[in-house]
Amino acid sequence: MGQDSYRRLPSRTSDNCFACGQNHPSGLRMTFFTDGEKVLSWPRVPKHLSGWSNLVHGGVISTMLDEIMGWAAVRLLKKMSLTRSITVDFLKPVYVDEELTLEAGVKAMHGDREALMESSLRNGKGELCAVAVGTFALFAFDAIRKRAIVDNELLDELERLVSDP
Known about the structure:
Order of helices and strands: EEEHEEEEHH
Largest sheet: 7 strands, antiparallel
Number of strands: 7
Shape: globular
Number of helices: 3
Helix content: 10-25%
Number of domains: 1
């Protein structure tokens, strides 16, 4: 299924995130889509983020898998999330400048303060290239505001994102 089958989530405009910031000059500029049960992205990794030759660097692959799990946690669980841990399995090489498919969803909940998320990355042929599982701490937006971990402009933006049907 392509992007037309899913609803695009608004892009963040208030910061310079390497993974999803649309204004980051060297970043991935990932955009996200949802069907209400999972979150997807179809990025192309630029050549300057290669490891050896035309292979995507493993750290960039890990970043993409972490980012999509974070967006899935925020969007699907309607809470702010912070990564506690992530495990990535690299199954096949991933090449630069190829449209990739990333998908993430909730694997399990541990009370209302922690979620086990899962994500996958497929290449342009649909082959599974990497999978990740991450544990995410979940916070109400007001709790994050009180701790001053994230600026209020970004929190307002994320709250609009999760409240949008």
